[in-house]
Amino acid sequence: MGGLVVTIRHLELAEELFEIEPSATYPARAAAIVAQLAGAAAHRVVVDGNEAGQGGPDARGESFAVPLRAGKADVGMLHLWFGADNRGEDAQRIARWGGRLIARGIAYSKRIATGGGREIDVQALLASTPLTPRERDVVGRLVAGHSTREIATNTGLTVATVNTYLKRIFAKLGVHSRVELLARVTGTRNSFPAPSPRPS
Hints:
The chain has two domains: about 10-115, 2-Layer Sandwich (Beta-Lactamase), CATH 3.30.450.40; about 120-185, Winged helix-like DNA-binding domain superfamily/Winged helix DNA-binding domain (Arc Repressor Mutant, subunit A, Orthogonal Bundle), CATH 1.10.10. The chain is about 45% helix and about 15% strand. The protein contains eight helices and four strands; from the N terminus they run ααββββαααααα. Strands 2-1-4-3 form a four-stranded antiparallel β-sheet, with helices on one face. Strand 1 and strand 2 (about 50-55) form a beta hairpin.
């Protein structure tokens, strides 16, 4: 990424892109995060005809539009305005990357919001998986919209320990990200692999 310097704050902001609950406010929250990561002076996001943003377009600055696509479907558009001192390739790369994550988050949050009105009993859903009770608890908290830091605080674990649990959970359930895990949990009850039989 050239001369881009990544700080802990950048990583924490990036993590917030995966916090899709509450779904109604996700596009505005996610757009604000991407704008901050990219160093944009102002931003607007348009999803389903609804517009949200912060700051007005700066006529002296450069505008950059990022289509929000989930698969082949267009779900909206993110508009960013940069001042003359911050409009390089790194900013545009971050904006495109963020746009892809926002689009996925919107698609997953819509899926959660339109889940047929059914309550998801996460613990019952995960009972047949190879997860330990503590790992099931971590998944339940993640589905409820808690960040890694909040899970750590509420369970008395360290952030590093929660991240270790998440790595084990991903490996056991065959998923690669929090967003994919949320999609699997809110999907069908047959979405997880059955536990492998123990060797005798």
